[in-house]
Amino acid sequence: MRAIFFDASGVLYDRRGSTAELLARLLGERGYRAELDAPAHAERARLNGLAKTGGIDARELWDRVLRLHGVESEVERRELIGHVFEAAHEVFALPGVPDALIELDRRGLALGVISDTIYPESWKRRWLAVVGVLDILDVVVCSNVVGARKPDPAIYRAALDRAEVPASESAFVGHDARELEGALAVGMLTVGIGAGGGDHRLDSLGDLPSLLARGRIV
Known about the structure:
Structural class: alpha/beta
Oligomer: single chain
Shape: elongated
């Protein structure tokens, strides 16, 4: 094993609250519909996918989503987007994360992040710095930069290419079954956090160094 790649949100860090729940609450307080009908919901999903692959940026995404919810005032949309962005920055490290990655780095493994995101890579790096792991990561790959999101093989291969490591000598750690399946399809070993599945399953990322020490990941 030469390299380990991680999903970011839900594996390395989480947020103080859901931006979707925040937005729903703010919309309800202002008298807008918090729930979307089926066509609008499908359009929101399409816009989210477009943002995650770099077709639109986060501000345009949220602006168009707010229009779907009936917010016609540009000033009000800007204000609501500001609240969403503030919430997006409220991240915290999940248990065991900094210590686990520091130990993996000490063992000489290349470490990276493969993340689906609507936000700028600079924000992603900022959050990883808050978590305390940015300085030991060798690779940070974001879907909206690569133009592909998990489980598309292209995003895993982009990370492997940047790390100069073959898939057969790498692992992907995540919590989403489809994303783990995508990594497996390109030849990576997979480690699921929680109920995510994978070749191996851990309750906490803090258990990953001991899994390596026991020779379970080779």
